[in-house]
């Protein structure tokens, strides 16, 4: 009998869920419940109804990438399966993503959720790096059987070598920084410098997604950012709760000006390019001051690149951890020497936090000097880094091998969690 | 009402916010600055950072509703005087443990050295320890340190802003 396979990429930030075999997930929702400012009730985010997330409090089942609150996850999944996917778990199989190094206690709690609370008929646990690799391998004539997957998501950043679809977990390296910390860091900066947005997780997420980018030359760009009306300055308009419940970028063209700056441009060249803009902007300066007084908006300049910068230099935040380029080098160096050149040649970027413009360019710039000269460095950002892992899961779920890989409810009942888990390693 | 429309931030952050006094104390001694730095890193993983900075002082007009207190109580045991012991026990049972608590319970240190684990996967310290500093006021490269609180600034202009409005304060 052919059964539905529910493919569930259970991220700390976003749930991506749908049926195996389809190209894209049918539901993408935040993995949280939230409580609007004026309400006492926690509610599920709904993709179909408008949400006023202004000053909403939030509860998440996942902490640092790992499931710590199965009760809350149960509520969120129950809503997902019944209202959004409209599937009957008892007649479905589940392919679930789980981060590497999930603690046994969390695995047990997850198995209980899957088999005892939801009664799935069978279950398979997949790791994001394998699925990202699988998807990329399906997309091109990808001769190598291995790749180095950089998964920079909501909770952390992993550099994981994947060999024949399995993560080499003894070589995996982690930076304790992801999109959540970056959003919180941006909140801090904006609150310290302009307006208090410490309660505005959802708003600042939007600011980060629309306005942050990676600098190719931080020292130069900090100099540029000091000038009035510089290429980085742009304005974000806060929601007023009346005409708009969401914030927005005031002038999207203004927000794109930085793209005119070339990698090698010196400060003088930049100055020349920007002179034209500067005139315009100076003229508008009076207007801007007036608007500022009402506090309906705030300006960003160097925050736009100082926030993603932390992925490359966590030490700047006071974290005693190496940045992304070194993280990759350490992961690759932990592998067999024969694998190393192939891994550098096949670096895949996945996860929502790889969406910052120019991240891949900057990574290559930092990585190149750290890699032996006769090795190629080849970085492939996933076309859709938020969905890439799910798509890999969808492929796996519809492959002929899948049936033999999963654990059935009967096996779980007979063998228990720990023994079933050995199948997924 | 008019006020609310013209000033969305009033609507957005109606909760009172105070400088956490523990933080202030911590910042004053350089030994404790490390502690404060760690606390700050921890805060970057918080979901409701603004909410959790609130100190529920009795003489202050409490701006949190009961629900908030229940939530915050999981992390801070403040502001719970009105709760019965029974209610507390119930919450303690229901409150999920943090991931770091779960890691601690898993006793990963006892694994044999060749077994990969969450702890061993951490990337480790950078090979070059040079930390860049950015001005907390404007974001530029910062060469000066406030002698009172250890925060960085870039120029006398930013130093003045720091001294006037921010020194020894964590949240604006
Ligand atoms: Zn400054
Ligand atoms: Zn100070």
UniProtKB/TrEMBL annotation, chain A:
GO terms for biological process: actin filament-based process; cell division; chromatin remodeling; megasporocyte differentiation; negative regulation of flower development; regulation of chromatin organization; regulation of DNA-templated transcription; response to osmotic stress. One of its GO terms (cellular component) is Swr1 complex. It is found in: Nucleus. InterPro entries: Actin, ATPase_NBD. The keyword Nucleus applies. Keywords: Nucleus. Gene3D superfamilies: 3.30.420.40, Actin, Chain A, domain 2 (2.30.36.70), Actin, Chain A, domain 4 (3.90.640.10). SMART domains: ACTIN. The lineage of its organism: Eukaryota, Viridiplantae, Streptophyta, Embryophyta, Tracheophyta. Belongs to the actin family. ARP6 subfamily. This is Actin-related protein 6. Its main location: nucleus. Pfam families: Actin. The keyword Cytoplasm does not apply. GO terms for molecular function: nucleosome binding. It comes from the Eukaryota.
Automatic annotation (TrEMBL), chain B:
One of its GO terms (biological process) is chromatin remodeling. Residues 55-68 have a biased composition (Acidic residues). Keywords: Metal-binding, Zinc, Zinc-finger. The keyword DNA repair does not apply. Pfam families: zf-HIT (PF04438). GO terms for cellular component: Swr1 complex. It comes from the Eukaryota. GO terms for molecular function: nucleosome binding; zinc ion binding. Residues 1-33, 49-68 are annotated as: Disordered. InterPro entries: Vps71/ZNHIT1, Znf_HIT. Residues 135-167 form the HIT-type domain. PANTHER family: ZINC FINGER HIT DOMAIN CONTAINING PROTEIN 1. This is HIT-type domain-containing protein. It comes from Prunus persica (Peach).
